[in-house]
Amino acid sequence: VEDNQFSGNAAVSAYRSLRESHHVKSLISFGGPAVLAVRPIVESEKFPMLALSAAVQLDKGGNGSITRLWESSKGLGTLFAELSNQLEKKRPAVISYEAEVGLEIRNAAKAKLQSATVVDEVVNPSETEFSGLLTKLRATQPDLIFLNFVGGQATAVFQKLRSLGVNAPVVFHSGLFFDPKVRSPYPLDYNGSYVATVSDEGAQQLYD
After folding, report:
1. Helix, strand, coil distribution of the chain in percent, nearest 5
2. CA gap 178, 186 in Å, rounded
3. Which strand (E) or helix (H) includes residue 119?
4. Radius of gyration (Cα) for the chain, nearest Å?
5. Summary count for the chain: helices (H), strands (E)
6. Which residue in 13, 61, 83, 116 is a FRET match for 192, CA 20 to 30 A apart?
7. What are the backbone angles phi and psi of residue 166, rounded to the nearest 5°?
8. Whether this model's pTM surpasses 0.70
9. Distance CA 179, CA 106 (A)
10. Grouped pLDDT means (10 residues each) for the chain, 208 residues
């Protein structure tokens, strides 16, 4: 096991370390930056890799070396919409990060939602101050929130939402895969609050 630090350079270094020091016959890699960084090497060596990533670039090309374990970005957005529709939510909110994959997920979700979003915001990946977003969410009181980004941002927004009394269920970027109704082994506590993303230790601790 090597920590790719959700970074392209670290992922390449981890891949080379594993290949050189162990008899590795396949690889599992998490996160778009890491997966895309090692993709050229993996494909040139025809080395089998399982990718946990919704990166839109994986939808195109390739020589069959990489198998995606998650839905594509469009599929992920559709899963959120299906969950919202299934639960008959009338006031969903979609908050996405400002990157190609984030916008793909957002657009796919909005295309399938049966109810109009009460908040539809795009957040810069480097953003640390969320007062405007939090004010909108507090004022509109959505009944389901899709935080379509991961890492410290997601944890920070979740904690601030709860401190402000916004208690709607919150679904994190990758948490959709933890609901049995959308093809996953772990239950979503509809009456609780949210599903944590596997990539965020802070959010996972909150979930536990």
Report:
1. 45, 15, 40
2. 5
3. strand 119-123
4. 18
5. 7, 8
6. 116
7. -90, 105
8. no
9. 19
10. 70 84 78 84 88 74 78 75 87 87 86 94 83 92 84 74 84 53 38 38 37
